[in-house]
Every structure is written in structure tokens, then in C-alpha cells.
Design the sequence.
């Protein structure tokens, strides 16, 4: 599965207009589009467009007309007032455009809006490429449907080309991550996943695989316990990228939950398990973040921890009431075997101390309450550094990723006190599930050399990892927080 980005590998960025071999030209027009039409006329060496074809076109969002010049099709799309162009609307227009054109064999030239704003470029490039993606290469007729067309992104402004290149690369990595997420668990076993990572990581990223035997020596007992019911060996993958760093510079450490399939264990899930292959989504996102920094040649030191396990039922699987001694030395009472993601993250949080990170960010699909609370519309953020939380929320708005901060009051910490161990892995009240995850993980935040807690951010993306029945995306994995966290940690 090396370099599979669906059918979007043949793209070109150009700053000189071309018409030869182009089947479809796409233009965005605002309400005051007359001057734009004059410029477009010059591109095609015609005096003007027939006025009649624009009778029902007003440049409003949703307006759309087509016009033919010989064999070439011109598509005009309205996006509202130029000065008040809504970024979310622009992003959605390009998502829909990408999705609608994902089966065409036409050569397409997209005339990007002439705007110097980096995020206006992002809305167009990221929207189109992520909308264009769909996961269909397991179908028997896939090879006969491979498209050989070219996509051209055109701008006359040379200075925005680096933005186009940046968001093209980020979006292609995002689609690679979606491939991992969408693969069924029988085709993405732990060893396969590691193999794919090794094949697709750039050379400036190092990968270390910590085996089950070594995890036992390290005392990563929570991680090992979750995997006890599986017939696969668990592993901890450590990804490292750094550039222009001093020996004294501390890394930023990401942890991504990598539960390859989650049956719930003996607290078995009572609803459909069809989407439980997506429980490894956060590990793929962390892979994508590290690869993105490496591809963009970011300055800094970044580490990704990917704990890879399965939560299955079997003769050796953990049971409710078991007590496990974690890597940190704290004992954990297993009060719910379906609250497994926080267990593997907790051990990795403790393990991350060896890297002396300046910031620890964990990501997981962790609490069903997160999905229910926001109806799959927002992720949840918590932690011990509220300034960082606010910054991430604001950056998320630029990338169309909604994130909401939740509190961690003392009462929630009391809810996970255990009678037989240091802490229990689910709350006594069975309420505030999203907050309880953060409260549990707060017990495993490591301390720095001064004895102070390392700065920590916790993100729960449950409900945001998969999309179904959308007019903007094809069904399947949806990579939440990748671009937001890349931007937030760049040069931090």
C-alpha cells in the first residue's frame, strides 16, 4: 500500500494559464463578478461572454452555471460577497467540488482565488483534495477505475505557490492516514501497520518498534493487559523527527491511541462493532503529524508514541475487578474493560518521561459521551495548561475543526478513587464520561527534572474520526486535529 493517495497523485501547480488538453476549467465568482469575467475572457481570447448565460447567476453561494467553448467546459461557481467571503463556505464549496469530480477522467484546471491569505489558499486546496478522496481500492473493479487525469491548480501569483505546495502535501498525508483508518482489521494487523509506516515514512524520520518482550521488561503492564485477549503481539512504535535543535532543546511528545480493533473485552459492546476498526485512528493521526513536520521540514524536535494493541475477548483477556500495576507504579482497578484506550495512553504518558518533553499531547477516541454530547460535531480538550487549550481551539477554527474545553474539577477526581487500588479506570457514577477520561489520565502526567508536572494537553476525538452520509465527504475516516496540531506545534 505504498503511496496510495486514492486517485490524486497526478496534480500540477502552475502560474501560467494553459488551455491545451484541459477538459474543464473551474472559476469562482463573487456577487460583483463583471471585472472577473473580463479577465477570464482575455484568458480565452474572446471579447466577452454572452450576457444571457448569466441571467440566473448572481454569484451567491450555491449558484452554478456551465458554458462551453468548443470542446472545453467552463464551470462558474458562486461564493458570495468577495470582501465577506465566509471561510467555512469556501471550504465546503471545494469539498463538494472534489467529491463530485472524484470519478471523472477529465483534465481539470482550477483557477484559485487571487488572494494572498494563506488560509484562503488552504480552504481551496485542502477542501478539494480531501473531498476528492474515497476509499474504494478493495473493490474488484478498482484497477479498471484508476483515473489517469491531471489536476492543475492555477494562480498567477508566484508568492502563494509555497502555500499551495504546503496544503497539497498536508492533504495528501491526511488522505494516507485515512487509508490506514479505513482498512479493515484483518488487512491491517499490527505487523502490517508497522510495515506500512516503514515503507511510507520519509528518511528524516526514525522509527523504533518496542516489542512485547521489551514492553514486559519496561513494565508497560496496562498496555500489555489490554492486549491479553488478542492473538497478535502488541507493540509500541516510537517515531522521531528533529531539525535545527540544540542538545538542550526539549521535544514535543504526541501519544496516539492505537487500538486496532475494540470489542470492548468482557464488558462487550452492546451496539454494532462495524466502526471499531477506527479505534486506531489517533495513532494514524500522530503518524500523520510527525510525517507532516518532516515533509514540511519544520524546525523542532517531535516524538510520536503509538501503542498498538487489540481489545479482544479470550481466555487470557483482562477481567473486570483485575488490578494492574502500571508503568508509573500506580495500581489500577479495571472496573470496565471497554475503557481500554485510557490504559494504553496512561502507560505511554508515564514512559514519555524518559524524553523529558516540554509538552505532552495525547489523542484518542476515548469516550462515547464525547460523540453524544456534541452529536459528532466537536472534539474535547482538557489538560493542565489552559493557555495552550485556548490556542488550539482558536487554530482549530481556521482549519474547520471544532474543539470544546471541558473542566477537571476535584469532584471528578474523587469519582475515580478505588477501594482496592490507587485509581479505577472508570467513574463510580457512570456520568461525565468525557471528563472522567481526562481525570484518570491526569494521574499519569509525568514530572520534569524540577519535580513539576509536564505541560499536558488531552484531546478526545470520539465521534469525529469517521463520517457517514455527508454531502462533503465520501464515507469513511475523517482525520480530525491533524492540521490544527501541526500548526500549533510548529516552532513552539
Sequence:
Amino acid at each position: 500500500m505504498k503511496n496510495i493517495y486514492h486517485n490524486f497523485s497526478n496534480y500540477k501547480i502552475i502560474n501560467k494559464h494553459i488551455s491545451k488538453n484541459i477538459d474543464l476549467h473551474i472559476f469562482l465568482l463573487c456577487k460583483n463578478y463583471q471585472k472577473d469575467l473580463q479577465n477570464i475572457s482575455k484568458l480565452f481570447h474572446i471579447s466577452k461572454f454572452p450576457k444571457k448565460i448569466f441571467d440566473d447567476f448572481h454569484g451567491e453561494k450555491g449558484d452554478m452555471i456551465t458554458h462551453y467553448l468548443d470542446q472545453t467546459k467552463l464551470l462558474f461557481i458562486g461564493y458570495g460577497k468577495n470582501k465577506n467571503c465566509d471561510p467555512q463556505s469556501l471550504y465546503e464549496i471545494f469539498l463538494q467540488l472534489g467529491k463530485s469530480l472524484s470519478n471523472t477522467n477529465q483534465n481539470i484546471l482550477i483557477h484559485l482565488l487571487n488572494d494572498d491569505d494563506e488560509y484562503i489558499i488552504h480552504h481551496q486546496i485542502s477542501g478539494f483534495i480531501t473531498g476528492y478522496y474515497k476509499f474504494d481500492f478493495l473493490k474488484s473493479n478498482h484497477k479498471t477505475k484508476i483515473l489517469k487525469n491531471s489536476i492543475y491548480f492555477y494562480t498567477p501569483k508566484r508568492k502563494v505557490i509555497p502555500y499551495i505546495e504546503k496544503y497539497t502535501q498536508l492533504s495528501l498525508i491526511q488522505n494516507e492516514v485515512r487509508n490506514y483508518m479505513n482498512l479493515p482489521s484483518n488487512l491491517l494487523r499490527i505487523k502490517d501497520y508497522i510495515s506500512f509506516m516503514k515503507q511510507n515514512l520519509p528518511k528524516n524520520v526514525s522509527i523504533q518498534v518496542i516489542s512485547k518482550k521489551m514492553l514486559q521488561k519496561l513494565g508497560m503492564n496496562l498496555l500489555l493487559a489490554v492486549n491479553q485477549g488478542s492473538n497478535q503481539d502488541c507493540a509500541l512504535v516510537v517515531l522521531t523527527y528533529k531539525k535545527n535543535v540544540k542538545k538542550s532543546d526539549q521535544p514535543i511528545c504526541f501519544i496516539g491511541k492505537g487500538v486496532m480493533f475494540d470489542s470492548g473485552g468482557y464488558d462487550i459492546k452492546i451496539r454494532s462493532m462495524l466502526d471499531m476498526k477506527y479505534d486506531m485512528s489517533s495513532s494514524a493521526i500522530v503518524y500523520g503529524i510527525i510525517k507532516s513536520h518532516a515533509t514540511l521540514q519544520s524546525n523542532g524536535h517531535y516524538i510520536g508514541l503509538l501503542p498498538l494493541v487489540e481489545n479482544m475477548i479470550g481466555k487470557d483477556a483482562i477481567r473486570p475487578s483485575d488490578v494492574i500495576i502500571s508503568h508509573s507504579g500506580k495500581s489500577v482497578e479495571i472496573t470496565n474493560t471497554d475503557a481500554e484506550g485510557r490504559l494504553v495512553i496512561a502507560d505511554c504518558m508515564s514512559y514519555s518521561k524518559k524524553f523529558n518533553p516540554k509538552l505532552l499531547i495525547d489523542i484518542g477516541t476515548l469516550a462515547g459521551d464525547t460523540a453524544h454530547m456534541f452529536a459528532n460535531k466537536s472534539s474535547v480538550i482538557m489538560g493542565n495548561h489552559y493557555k495552550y487549550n485556548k490556542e488550539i481551539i482558536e487554530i482549530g477554527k481556521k482549519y474547520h475543526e471544532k474543539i470544546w474545553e471541558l473542566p477537571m474539577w476535584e469532584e471528578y477526581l474523587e469519582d475515580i478513587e478505588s477501594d482496592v487500588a490507587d485509581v479505577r479506570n472508570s467513574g463510580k457514577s457512570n456520568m461525565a464520561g468525557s471528563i472522567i477520561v481526562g481525570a484518570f489520565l491526569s494521574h499519569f502526567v509525568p514530572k520534569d527534572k524540577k519535580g513539576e508536572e509536564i505541560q499536558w494537553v488531552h484531546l478526545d476525538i470520539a465521534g469525529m474520526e469517521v463520517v457517514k452520509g455527508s454531502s462533503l465527504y465520501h464515507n469513511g475516516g475523517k482525520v480530525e486535529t491533524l492540521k490544527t496540531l501541526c500548526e500549533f506545534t510548529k516552532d513552539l
Residues 184-489 form a domain with the Aminopeptidase fold (CATH 3.40.630.10). The mean pLDDT is 93.
